[in-house]
């Protein structure tokens, strides 16, 4: 929340979404947020795609979304238990589509212009640092997404 508030005025007055522990978004809320955004930020636990209904996601059209930042792949005891319970009901192929590369490809096919995503599991603190670096470089200094990611890699 601190990072969003810090860069709120520099980017847009129309930030929309769910922050903190407000509630768990419904599938309809996810779809509404995704289809009406020009940029999308996910900062959360486990795999981003595990929070969505895959069959509905593959049918979506998201051409307005120019940039999607997925700071996911964070694991806690509770999130691991939730994901394990959820994965029991899924096929191997369904779980495979939720991996980072496959998620980026799927989002690209739905119309998302650029995807910045983690490739490996990480911590909330490391994702907070990534978000700070990306926000500073994209919103304050106006760097391109490619340059901001390159700075992030260093």
UniProtKB/TrEMBL annotation:
Q: Which InterPro entries does the entry link to?
A: CFAP46
Q: Name one GO biological process term.
A: axoneme assembly
- In Swiss-Prot or TrEMBL terms, this protein is called CFA46 protein
């Amino acid at each position: 929340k601190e990072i969003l508030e810090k860069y709120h005025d520099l980017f847009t007055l129309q930030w929309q979404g769910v922050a903190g522990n407000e509630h768990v978004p419904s599938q309809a809320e996810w779809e509404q947020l995704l289809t009406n955004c020009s940029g999308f930020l996910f900062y959360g636990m486990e795999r981003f795609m595990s929070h969505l209904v895959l069959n509905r996601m593959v049918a979506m059209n998201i051409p307005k979304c120019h940039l999607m930042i997925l700071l996911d792949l964070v694991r806690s005891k509770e999130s691991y238990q939730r994901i394990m319970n959820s994965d029991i009901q899924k096929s191997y192929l369904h779980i495979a589509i939720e991996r980072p590369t496959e998620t980026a490809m799927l989002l690209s096919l739905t119309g998302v212009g650029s995807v910045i995503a983690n490739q490996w599991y990480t911590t909330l603190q490391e994702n907070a640092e990534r978000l700070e670096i990306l926000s500073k470089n994209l919103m304050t200094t106006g760097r391109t997404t490619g340059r901001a990611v390159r700075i992030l890699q260093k």
